[in-house]
Fold this protein.
Amino acid sequence: MSRFVATCVLLMAAAAAFAHGVADRDAMFIEQNPGAALIAFTYLGAKHMITGYDHLLYLAGVIFFLYGTRDIALYVTLFAVGHSITLLAGVLGEIDVNVYIVDAIIGLSVVYKAFENLGGFQKLFGVVPNPKIAVFSFGLVHGFGLATKLQALSLSAEGLVGNMLGFNVGVEIGQLIALAVLLVLINTWRATGGFARHATAFNVTLMFAGFLLANYQAAGYFLGG
């Protein structure tokens, strides 16, 4: 089971590093869209979130040790509010952020969460940063990551606000779908009895995947894309 989980995480990280972005067909639709297309942008937002492996890796780390429905809802909401703010502000406010730097930080957010899950902050520094503030803050970063993908395209000014709201709603729908799948997988794993034994290995692998993502994006930045 642990080997299976580790393999899944690595495959997800590799796919994220080399494939995460807006698909060519979707990009063509967005650039050629003459005006409001709420349903289409909602679909694109959901699709982007479901295939956004860096976001999913972080989300998996966030809910990994959460058992109560209220706690899961609270942390996922904090993350959603954070990335909704910067997604909309980034595109509508034309806030220019380097895509490689943002995606590298997103990779490091995965590292941070895995390190936190391993109790690293308590062991090394004797303190644990507020996890709620961390999740909200990284949500802001992830939102800029989504915004940079859209800012790279030629978006029509006509209907832009509605389209971005639709895209953001789609992102939230995609997040809920992904969350449901992750919870099923994690709860199934917990039921096998091997969860506690392999939790450390999983989070170490998650941390490695985060470093892989961050290093890939850093290389893109320093090599000029």
